[in-house]
Specification:
Elements lengths: L1 E5 L12 H13 L4 E4 L2 E2 L8 H17 L3 E4 L2 E3 L4 H6 L11 E5 L6 H13 L3 E4 L6 H5 L3 H8 L2 E5 H5 L4 H12 L5 E3 L12 H12 L1 H27 L1
Parallel strand pairs: 1-2, 2-4, 3-5, 5-6, 6-7, 7-8, 8-9
Helix pairs in contact: 1-2, 9-10
Bound molecules: fe (ii) ion.
Length: 243
């Protein structure tokens, strides 16, 4: 499995609180059969600064443990949409997903349709591919999951949290996931893990559930094929630009 959304880099946001927790989270991911991880510290203006020096320093330290465990660890960012998103991406103030053109973007839970639409449009018109983080958490999609179809037709991807599907985040969120999955509007399931307690990685458990509900091929698409395609696309871009 490939996990493209998690907060296992310590000391940079509300995720792992120490290097030890980062290490335990990596070992837990490996045990679950996860082979590739994109660590996505929050960037949210005024709340989570995504200080590049600290992020890189702690990422490199954690990467050594990942390598020892046979995991591939990439860097990304969970970007809380704001007015300067394009500027921050262009000047590499924040990372895209593993250096690809894909950007993990989150919104306020009460964001309006027009606000989400404008931000998605902005990213796409500049050549980025938005991945909507935990789409099940936003009021507009809880009310009308079908709206996700429009954003996917624009070129965006839809990510759901394993926890949300399993129901640990409450009934409304679980039911929204169910509808999104039933209408085949999801592209990726990720952990959004923050710690080894309430917000730990539950991808294995979620995958087993979805294998039962949706079949192996669908589960594979959500947990493996689509997220791996993001990492591959970064490598392809790299090859193209370096040859
Ligand atoms: Fe997150």
């Amino acid at each position: 499995m490939v996990d493209i959304h998690c907060h296992l880099i310590y000391g940079v946001d509300d995720g792992a609180a120490s290097f030890d927790v980062s290490e335990t989270m990596l070992a837990d991911a490996a045990r679950q059969g996860i082979t590739d991880i994109i660590a996505t510290p929050h960037y949210r203006e005024g709340m989570f600064p995504y200080d590049v020096d600290t992020v890189l320093n702690n990422y490199y330290r954690v990467s050594e443990t990942a390598e020892r465990l046979g995991l591939r660890l990439f860097l990304g960012c969970e970007y809380h949409a704001d007015y300067d998103m394009l500027g921050n991406l262009r000047n590499k103030r924040v990372a895209t997903l593993a250096g690809s053109n894909y950007v993990l973007v989150e919104f306020s839970y009460t964001s309006s349709y027009i606000n989400v639409h404008n931000k998605i449009n902005e990213l796409i018109s500049e050549g980025y591919i938005p991945v909507i983080a935990h789409a099940e958490r936003y009021g507009i999609f809880q009310k009308d999951p079908g709206l996700l179809m429009q954003f996917r037709e624009m070129g965006a991807y839809v990510q759901l949290n394993a926890d949300s599907i399993l129901g640990t985040d409450g009934g409304t969120i679980r039911r929204t996931c169910k509808k999104i999955l039933k209408e085949d509007l999801a592209d990726i399931v990720a952990s959004d893990s923050h710690d080894m307690k309430e917000r730990r990685n539950r991808m294995y458990e979620c995958r087993k559930l979805l294998e039962k509900k949706l079949g192996n091929a669908n589960a594979n698409r959500l947990f493996e094929n689509v997220p791996r395609m993001i990492i591959r696309s970064a490598n392809e871009d790299y090859r193209r630009y370096s040859s």
